[in-house]
């Protein structure tokens, strides 16, 4: 029997218990940095050195943290469901927890690519993207084609190349789970709208959620505790949720 499709949309909150700062909570990253300076394409054109420092620091931090029980629980769902993780996070904690199908909507911190100063808004070839682990890049570090290397991150003002892939996954979801996102940043925040009319949507977040939709059940917990509750819900509805004859 075919496993049911479970799409998990995650944001910074899923990694908070690993020790990575969220963006918009008190003492979040956007309290200490101006988003336009460190996360926009215009910031890159204004002061690329500042941007490189910011991501070098984030990349180094990533080397010191580990996946938490929520990442592991999401990976564990693959035993019983056909899981697609759509993450806004640029960390690699879902990979390290064992999830196998991950769509990184906002790019990946451990990867870099050559900048294309005259066409940055559109095309980059996946072939030019490469992994530097938890290392650093600096002004003057050049790709084979002579272009400055930049973080492989989707900045404000740039397109989100993986959004179509994410929409396709959500459209096919039998169940959707959203963990730890303030749902403030589009297009990711609007993804749940592509779920079917009868698709149940669970949101794990310790704070209020800014959406009202009859399909949504809010599990008001931190990610690790919320995942335990979500697993209990899945078990209690196993006969509805587990197998599909589609
Ligand atoms: P935010 O910082 O906007 O939201 C984090 C959410 O996680 C909030 O709703 C918190 O209540 C919740 N949260 C905090 N601690 C939690 C915990 N332990 N368990 C579960 N939830 C918790 O982060 P995102 O929604 O991910 O993009 O932000 C979206 C995008 O904005 C990011 O990908 C980034 C940022 O600007 C770019 O930089 C392009």
In short:
This protein has 246 residues and is an alpha/beta fold.
Could you characterize what this model shows?
This protein has helices at 13-16, 29-32, 35-38, 41-46, 48-62, 69-76, 93-97, 163-171, 223-236, 238-241, and strands spanning 2-3, 5-10, 82-87, 102-104, 107-114, 130-131, 149-153, 175-179, 201-204, 216-219, 243-244. It has 246 residues and is of the alpha/beta class. The longest helix has 15 residues, at 48-62. Helix 7 (93-97) links the parallel strand 3 (82-87) and strand 4. The site of 2'-O-acetyl adenosine-5-diphosphoribose (OAD) has 25 residues, from helix 1.
What kind of sheet is the major sheet? Answer: 6 strands, parallel
Helix share, percent: 25-40%
Bound molecules: 2'-O-acetyl adenosine-5-diphosphoribose
Name the strands of the widest sheet in spatial order.
4-3-2-8-9-10
Secondary-structure-based class equals: alpha/beta
Main attributes of the structure:
six-stranded parallel sheet, three-stranded antiparallel sheet, alpha/beta, 246 residues, binds 2'-O-acetyl adenosine-5-diphosphoribose, 10 helices
Secondary structure elements and their pairing?
Elements: E1 2-3, E2 5-10, H1 13-16, H2 29-32, H3 35-38, H4 41-46, H5 48-62, H6 69-76, E3 82-87, H7 93-97, E4 102-104, E5 107-114, E6 130-131, E7 149-153, H8 163-171, E8 175-179, E9 201-204, E10 216-219, H9 223-236, H10 238-241, E11 243-244
Parallel strand pairs: 2-3, 2-8, 3-4, 8-9, 9-10
Antiparallel strand pairs: 1-11, 5-6, 5-7
């Amino acid at each position: 029997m075919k496993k049911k499709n479970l799409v998990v949309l995650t944001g910074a909150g899923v990694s908070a218990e690993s020790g990575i700062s969220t963006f918009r909570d008190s003492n979040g990253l956007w309290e200490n940095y101006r988003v336009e300076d460190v996360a926009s394409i215009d910031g890159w054109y204004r002061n690329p050195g500042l941007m490189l420092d910011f991501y070098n620091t984030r990349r180094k931090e990533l080397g010191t943290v580990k996946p938490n029980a929520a990442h592991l629980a999401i990976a564990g769902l693959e035993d019983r469901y056909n899981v697609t993780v759509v993450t806004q996070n640029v960390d690699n904690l879902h990979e390290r927890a064992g999830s196998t199908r991950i769509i990184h909507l906002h790019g990946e911190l451990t990867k870099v690519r050559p900048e294309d100063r005259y066409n940055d808004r559109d095309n980059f070839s996946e072939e030019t993207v490469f992994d530097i682990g938890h290392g650093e890049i600096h002004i003057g570090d050049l790709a084979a084609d002579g272009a400055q290397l930049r973080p492989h991150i989707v900045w404000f003002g740039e397109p989100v190349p993986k959004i179509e892939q994410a929409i396709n996954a959500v459209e096919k979801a039998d169940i959707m789970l959203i963990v730890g996102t303030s749902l403030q940043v589009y297009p990711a925040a609007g993804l749940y709208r592509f779920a079917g009319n009868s698709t149940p949507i669970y949101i794990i977040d310790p704070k209020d959620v800014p959406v009202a939709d009859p399909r949504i059940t809010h599990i008001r917990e931190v990610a690790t505790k919320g995942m335990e509750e979500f697993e209990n819900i899945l078990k209690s509805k196993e006969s509805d949720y587990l197998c599909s004859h589609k």
